[in-house]
Amino acid sequence: MLRSRELRLDAFLPYRLSITSNLVSDHIASAYQQLFGLTIPEWRLIAIVAEEGAVAQSAVCERSRMDKVTVSRAAIAMVGRGLLARTAHDGDRRSHLLVLTDAGRELYADVSPKALELEEQLFSSFRPEELETFVAMLHRIDAVALSLRDQPKIER
Fold first, then answer.
1. CA-angle at 132, arms to 12 and 24, nearest 5°
2. pLDDT at residue number 41
């Protein structure tokens, strides 16, 4: 399709995306753990809540593509550390809204500049136009993957 019809794992784009994503996540996870005692799911949760204000766990799952169990564990840990609070969800009595506490907002304010530093470390060798093209391509890949989500899978 994109290259030859023979599968070569290192040239298989879904594999390459996964490997690259894991390498980037491992680098960032190490920094967040050392500096702030946060896992990647915990950081993503705090960042999403910081951006949204108050958000249901189901919305965090949808936005982050993390599964319910991962989000739930991260939320429990962050509530336990006093970084998040759960409030009643007026629109859905079965769920709660997550909001940052004062301590959570302080942590987010501390972590955000470090996140941008890590991004700079990873991508400083790329020209701005390369990064714009790369981000646009990632958005296109996301859109295609989402559009294929409800279509029948490949048959045996």
1. 50
2. 93
